[in-house]
Amino acid sequence: MGRYITTDKDKLKDPAQLPTNQGIKKQDLIVTRIIDAPVEQVWRAWTDPEYVKRWWGPKDYTSPSCKIDLRVGGKYLFSMRAPEDQVAGISTPPASTR
Question: Does a structural domain hold residue 63?
Fold first, then answer.
């Protein structure tokens, strides 16, 4: 499981020193929101890479690339670019500990 880290450049911590998520039980998170838009438009916003790149990520971040394959076994991959005054990274444990 990855962790998302964002800090000021001067405060960037070594991801190896951050707490891990080991021992955390998997739980489902259900978020409900009423969106005043046609179902087809909402579906496209979540499944069309060009639409996802327009809105995905925190404020002031960009998403320069997105690939979505909704087939069984497919992947949902996206990238985020931090504003120049911030550093962002994702760390995962080595494959041997997954």
Answer: yes
Backbone angles phi, psi at 11, to 5 degrees: -110, 10
pLDDT in tens, the chain (98 residues): 444 444 444 444 555 555 566 666 777 778 788 889 999 999 999 999 999 999 888 888 888 899 999 999 899 888 888 888 776 565 556 555 54
In the Cβ-directed half-sphere of 5, how many Cα atoms lie within 13 Å? 20
In a domain, 89, yes or no: no
In this structure, is residue 98 part of a structural domain?
Answer: no
Say which residues have a Cβ less than 8 Å from residue 11's Cβ, sequence separation at least 6: none
Q: What is the domain range of residue 57?
A: 30-83
